[in-house]
From TrEMBL:
It comes from Clostridium paridis. It comes from the Bacteria. InterPro entries: Double_zinc_ribbon (IPR053281), Zinc_ribbon_15 (IPR031493). It holds the Pfam family Zn_ribbon_15. This is Zinc ribbon domain-containing protein. Residues 23-118 form the Zinc-ribbon domain.
């Protein structure tokens, strides 16, 4: 295979910036980082074109991933707009911990009753 390394397609992820205008909706304290992901077609290590650009936000604390539109992502990258609470659309929930209000022990968020003390969560 002669062409490996000459032509190539790569998926790249780039950290754009920290978001100062909003905090993570899931853990309420985490700082959000704007990431840009795109596919890059290159020839002899020269990037030729990009496509499939996607923007998303990742919470530094709980790793929740939020999806944002390309238009919005671009506007934020170019400092034309800010991320607000309403832009946060959860794509993947991070490790947000749920505690039983009765015994205060950590429980699985899918449980309706606490496995430790049996109270309703
Ligand atoms: Zn978070
Ligand atoms: Zn409990």
């Amino acid at each position: 295979m002669f062409f490996i390394g000459i032509f190539g397609i790569e998926t790249k992820q780039k950290e754009i910036k920290r978001i100062a205008s909003a905090l993570c909706k899931e853990c309420r304290t985490g700082e959000l980082i704007l990431y840009k992901q795109f596919n890059m077609f290159h020839f002899f290590f020269i990037p030729l074109f990009k496509w499939g650009v996607k923007y998303y936000l990742v919470c530094k604390d709980c790793n929740t991933i939020y999806e944002i539109s390309i238009e919005k992502g671009k506007a934020v990258e170019e400092n034309r707009e800010d991320i607000t609470y309403w832009d946060l659309k959860v794509l993947h929930r991070g490790d947000v911990k749920v505690y039983c209000s009765h015994c205060n022990r950590e429980v699985n968020e899918e449980f309706e009753y606490c496995p430790h003390c049996g109270s309703k969560i």
